[in-house]
TrEMBL record:
Co-factor(s): Mg(2+); Mn(2+)
Secretion signal, residue range per the UniProt entry: none
Domain called Nudix hydrolase: residue spans: 19-150
Protein name: NUDIX hydrolase
Length: 193
């Protein structure tokens, strides 16, 4: 992975104090000599977005930065402790239909050791090789929006925005050095609720 590409990326921040803010960890690991991303499957019993593919993350608490929040959530959700020195950079903020501004925090974990999913939040944790995620996205149209809905194939299914948009931007920036923007990519209708 090109850490310098992520570090040098000119991200676009969103200034929306009317929305809630969240940080997600775009966590690069090493597994059997391959660079991977940590991707979780959300627990079936969650009130919102149950069973969906996600990156470790959540709401930023009072006094936290996006980096603080993403690293805290990474620890809480999968048991991985990383310090601020593991952060390679930030990607563009992504505004969700559910009222969040998500800041993707790219970090390097190397071989992560044993991962322990938080049972109440996470059904499974996967280390997905970057080669499996660095694929052309699928775009569809919906009557509710003029923007294209983005999805990526993952483990026999599809991962949707916002996760798909963030992963797509990460792969374009880190793997190819292409400063791709994804804020315009839409979420499927089920994510609006």
């Amino acid at each position: 992975m090109a850490a310098a590409r992520v570090a040098g990326f000119a991200r676009r921040a969103v200034d929306r104090p009317d929305l809630r803010h969240a940080g997600v960890a775009v966590c690069v690991t090493e597994d059997d000599g391959r660079e991977c991303l940590l991707v979780t499957r959300r627990a079936a019993g969650l009130r919102a977005h149950a069973g969906q593919w996600a990156l470790p993350g959540g709401r930023i608490e009072a006094g936290e930065t996006a980096v603080d929040g993403a690293l805290r959530e990474l620890h809480e959700e999968v048991g991985l402790v990383l310090g601020p020195d593991a952060v390679l950079g930030l990607l563009d903020d992504y505004v969700t239909r559910s009222g969040y501004v998500i800041t993707p925090v790219v970090c390097w974990a190397g071989p992560p050791g044993e991962l322990t999913p938080a049972e109440a939040e996470v059904a499974a944790v996967h280390q997905v090789p970057l080669a499996d995620l660095d694929v052309p996205p699928r775009f569809t149209r919906i009557p509710e929006s003029t923007a294209p809905v983005v999805a990526l194939p993952l483990l026999g299914g599809l991962v949707h925005a916002p996760t798909a948009a963030i992963v797509h931007q990460f792969c374009q920036v880190a793997c190819h050095g292409i400063p791709t923007r994804v804020a315009h990519l839409e979420q499927p209708v089920f994510a609006w609720r």
